[in-house]
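Entry 14. Structure prediction run on the chain below.
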Amino acid sequence: QVRLVETGGGLVLPGASLTLSCAGFGRSLSIYDMQWYRQAPGTVREFVAFISVSGIRTNYADSVKGRFTISRDNTKNTVYLQMNSLKAEDTAIYYCHVVIGGKDYWGQGTQVTVSS
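Output returned:
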């Protein structure tokens, strides 16, 4: 069992930056690959970014490549998503995700709204 808690969302202007955090409680996340997903109103949840256990391997959705950076601090049991040059189409609820023992775990999400 693990509880994931996302924080850091907010309302920002186009072109701004935000850093999201995903903290794990109840279990160490250090031995698991981690992902960020997002879901905009009326759409399906979509993959945003992936990071391997070591943090060496990362992967991004084409829509965020070059603007978003995923990282992790295993000493803090936390995964981050640095988001730069935000666009209106980045507006969504952002979730972190981990698979442990074949079971999917999601946080409650954090709302990111990009609007002028």
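The mean pLDDT is 97.
Filed with the rest of this week's runs.
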